[in-house]
Amino acid sequence: VLLIEFIPRPFRNLFTMLKEISTAVNFLSQLILRHSPQCTDSQLEVFREELTKLLTLKYLAHWDVDNPIKGSAYRSISNLNAPDPYIAKAATNASIPNLNIPSGFV
What we know:
The chain is mainly alpha-helical. It has four helices and no strands.
């Protein structure tokens, strides 16, 4: 029996969304650690907090637990030509001067 089954239906959406956001933020934080060695632990922590906050606000009305594919294009984070605006804003808020992460992921 999964824990999520015990969560009331209206809160499953939020629980699932926060888990997915946490996974994305942790992935991006690992990229920053690997490719931006000048970033301090405190800057990285602020980056995590800021990006979590920004993505939560963005995705709150665009998450359907019954149909996870719905809205996935809106929720994508891209670093193809330039850092995603949400990644860039979180980095700026965390005072990370030269964000250096690999390009080419969506």
